[in-house]
Amino acid sequence: MRRPTLLLPLLALLLAGCAFAPDGGQDDRPDDEAGAGTADGGIWRPAPGTDWQWQLSGRLDTGVDVPVYDIDGFDHTAATVAGLHRDGRKVICYLSTGAWEDWRPDAAEFPKSVIGKRNGWEGERWLDIRALDVLEPLMAARLDMCRAKGFDAVEPDNMDGYKNPTGFPVRAADQLRYNRLIAELAHDRGMSVGLKNDLDQIPELVDDFDFAVNEQCAQYDECADLTPFIEAGKAVFHVEYELSTSAFCADSRKLGLSSLLKKYELGAWREACQPSSGPGRTP
């Protein structure tokens, strides 16, 4: 979830709105040809500093020269994933696992009993993650979709409901249980999985997840909390929205983060923190 903030303009709120190839053949490209990182038991694990592109809206721009793409799992086809693979990219499947979204094709399958308060984004409401008997089969089906389309990894969003007013008495222990369930479901399907935000539980969850995805840790002076992932040899894919690259890139490089400046709608535009020569702009 792109972090809601009291300073966020209303316009930005409205804008939010397996390693097997689709033909059934195994994707046996070496990791250095298909996204930086290593394979641990067949699970791809991106290395710290791996460059990436995150695009969740607009027509997908496949021309950004990076080894990793993070795109919406529902919005894109197996053919799109296969095309990115042919270009040597690993592809991450974005899903919301902690919030209900009213526009998704499976929205009607979620009973009202597990749909809570709005989370700050149009059409989204928190889920009661305590209801594992209800949510596990629904999330398993979503992860099956990611696997069937050939995605290498999953970015499960809204993984920190226990820190927010969800409408349910969700505790930290409930969040740990649910997050580990999502990680297990992804691994069972041969995909790696990233921990989205949920900084306070990183010490307990770093061993369960293969990388991290974070929003605005520089703005909120939290980036050092992600160090356990870097020390474990796992990438931290990080974005800022309201700072200039000059305000956070130097620290990102020191910490080993894979940092981008993006706009809230998460279209194709990006400004990356380059490893040595400073921030570089990619339209």
Describe the structure.
There is one protein chain. 24% of the residues lie in helices and 22% in strands. It contains seven helices and 15 strands. Strand 9, helix 4 and strand 10 form a beta-alpha-beta unit. Helix 3 runs parallel beside helix 4. The longest helix has 17 residues. The N terminus and C terminus are likely disordered.
Write the layout of secondary structure elements.
Blueprint: H1 10-15, E1 38-40, E2 43-45, E3 53-55, E4 68-72, H2 78-86, E5 90-96, E6 99-101, E7 115-118, E8 124-127, H3 132-148, E9 153-157, H4 172-188, E10 192-196, H5 202-205, E11 211-215, H6 227-231, E12 236-240, H7 245-255, E13 258-261, E14 270-272, E15 280-282
Parallel strand pairs: 3-4, 4-5, 5-9, 9-10, 10-11, 11-12, 12-13
Antiparallel strand pairs: 1-2, 6-8, 7-8, 13-14, 14-15
Helix pairs in contact: 3-4
Number of domains: 1
What is the percentage of strand-forming residues?
Answer: 15-25%
CATH-assigned fold name? TIM Barrel
Query: Strand order within the widest sheet?
Result: 3-4-5-9-10-11-12-13-14-15
Along the chain, the helix and strand elements come as: HEEEEHEEEEHEHEHEHEHEEE
Helicity level: 10-25%
Cα-atom Rg, whole angstroms?
17 Å
Supply the CATH architecture: Alpha-Beta Barrel
Sketch the major β-sheet: 10 strands, mixed
Uncertain regions spanning at least 5 consecutive residues: 2-34, 276-283
What is the mean pLDDT? 88
Q: What is the tally of beta strands?
A: 15
- SSE-based structural type: alpha/beta
CATH superfamily: Aldolase class I
Shape: globular
Number of helices: 7
Tell me the distance between the termini: 23 Å
Protein name: Glycoside-hydrolase family GH114 TIM-barrel domain-containing protein
Pfam families: Glyco_hydro_114
Domain Glycoside-hydrolase family GH114 TIM-barrel: 52-268
Region (Disordered): 24-44
